[in-house]
Design goal:
This protein has helices at about 5-20, 30-50, 55-65, 75-80, 90-105, 110-120, 125-140, 145-165, 175-195, 200-210, 220-245, 255-270, 275-290, 295-300, 305-320, 325-330, 330-355, 355-370, 375-390, 395-415, 420-430, 440-445, 455-480. The protein has 23 helices and no strands. Helix 7 (about 125-140) runs antiparallel to helix 8 (about 145-165). The N and C termini lie far apart (about 55 Å).
Length: about 475
């Protein structure tokens, strides 16, 4: 059987209730309401893990095409259902995930982690900051935050912790592994907020903001990176200190052997390989082009689209043999992301085109507007409701797809400056990953290693969500004012 019966039945039941039993509200077309029924059913299936998300996406595309909710013409309906496969933002993330394979294949990501530990690893807090710095450097070219935090950084954390006999199996997780695991995880949402290419759903945020503002607000890679730089760095500096205060290593605070351990690991890895040097060079080219440096120096004729840049990077890695076509074909997560991303973006786009988002944002606007608040507290309330709703979601993409557009549009209607509120909501879309042990793909990997209890994880997550929101709203808001973004 290709699906889980109970989650599947629940998802179908929810969709059928919305479609057939709940009356179509005034101001909403039947097509929009029926698409909403399918959309909520799909989101419920994703949350309940009724099937792999890529399989659910194929089902969603089929349903949109068969039901004709976007068009009565069958050929137009299938074109609509497949329309988002032409969206460059979807390919930007897919190709970037393929590129990040090079960090793992060449060992460059692990080498960077051990290099930082070799320099700053004489204290436990120094190892924590080494992990944070590794996350920050890898983030721009690792759109799978799970691969970055769970696949590259966490094995290093476990190796260092085990070398100091900090092992959950022995009941010694508190010696240092608890602190390092929490730092390992809590760095992940912050770095995810700092670059469009740091986590897969960020381009979806860009797309939804552009649609809500008729492309008046179009967040480029460099605009996003500059906006999030200062609050992101402050959050990354503060976070390890808070984790150290909340869960201090009771025994191992001085770690002179960690630096030696890292040096030993680097020695085992041997000299920097030709492929690592090429990977580092491609890394540099990607950052230069994404940041728009050639266009700044040589003029607008040298501007390169971010998705084109990603294709250039992948092409260079294929030409040099750092990656082979077999490597690309085996990147299941990349092809999976392209598939489900296209399906969800398509459904969200047509909900907007059919007027459902406008209607729902109007409901939100009237509800919060009736409280008599100014735009600032009203929009803060909207953002907090959006962020903490993530306790009910096991997928950031599902959460963003389901709620972002309506909440953002409602904020605009309440008078929020479009760029300010876009950046606040964009930051919240990653900060919400801090909350639970199922919040994003990285969380079960790190939590599953057993270094923290459920209570410790949720407590740390809630505290960091509050700290991060304050940093991004206050310091970020002032920074964005200086930049002239509002």
């Amino acid at each position: 059987m290709g699906f889980k019966p109970i989650p599947t039945l629940i998802s179908i039941g929810i969709a059928l209730i919305i479609w057939f039993i709940i009356p179509v509200p005034s101001g909403v077309s039947p097509q929009a309401w029926h698409l909403l029924a399918m959309f909520i059913g799909v989101i419920a299936a994703i949350i309940g893990k009724a099937m792999p998300i890529g399989a659910i996406a194929i089902l969603a595309i089929s349903l949109v095409a068969v039901t004709g909710v976007t068009s009565n013409n069958p050929s137009d309906a299938i074109k609509d259902a497949l329309s988002s496969f032409a969206n460059p933002l979807i390919w930007l993330i897919g190709i970037s995930i393929m590129i990040s394979k090079g960090l793992q294949k060449t060992g460059l990501g692990v080498r960077l982690g051990y290099l930082f530990i070799a320099v700053w690893g004489k204290k436990t807090i120094g190892i924590g900051y080494s992990m944070v710095l590794s996350e920050l450097i890898l983030a721009p070219v690792t759109p799978s935050n799970t691969a970055r935090g769970g696949g590259i950084i966490h094995p290093i954390v476990r190796a260092i912790s085990t070398s100091y006999d900090s092992d959950p199996a022995k009941g010694t997780e508190g010696r240092m592994g608890k602190f390092l695991s929490l730092v390992n995880y809590q760095a992940n949402p912050i770095t995810s907020a700092m670059f469009i290419t740091a986590t897969a759903p960020n381009p979806l945020v860009v797309d939804l903001v552009a649609k809500a503002t008729n492309s008046e607000i179009s967040l480029s890679w460099s605009t996003w990176a500059i906006a999030m730089l200062l609050p992101g760095l402050v959050a990354l500096i503060v976070m390890p200190l808070i984790m150290y205060w909340m869960y201090p290593p009771p025994e191992v605070k001085e770690t002179p052997n960690a630096a030696q351990f890292a040096k030993t690991k680097l020695k085992e890895m041997g000299a920097v390989s030709k492929d690592e040097i090429i990977m580092l060079g491609v890394f540099g080219i990607l950052l230069l082009l994404w940041a728009g440096i050639p266009a700044v120096i040589l003029g607008s004729a040298w501007a390169v689209d971010p998705t084109t840049t990603a294709f250039i990077g992948l092409t260079l890695l294929l030409l040099t043999g750092v990656l082979t076509w077999e490597d690309i074909l085996t990147q299941k997560s990349a092809w999976d992301t392209i598939t489900w991303f296209a399906a969800l973006v398509m459904m969200a786009s047509y909900l907007n085109k059919l007027g459902l988002i406008t209607w729902f944002s109007g409901v939100l606007e009237n509800s919060i507007g009736s409280l008599g608040l100014g735009w600032m507290p009203a929009c803060l309330l909207l953002m907090l409701a959006y962020l903490y709703a993530h306790y009910m979601f096991a997928s950031t993409t599902a959460h963003i797809t389901a709620m972002f557009a309506a909440f953002y549009t409602a904020g605009l209607a309440l008078g929020a400056p479009p760029m300010l509120f876009a950046l606040m909501m964009a930051a919240a879309s990653s900060i919400m990953m801090t909350l639970t042990h199922y919040a994003t793909g990285t969380s079960p990997v790190v939590f599953g290693s057993g270094y923290t209890t459920l209570g410790e994880w949720w407590k740390a997550g809630f505290v960091m969500s509050v700290v991060n929101i304050i940093i991004f709203v206050v310091i970020g808001g002032l920074w964005w004012k200086v930049l002239g973004y509002w």
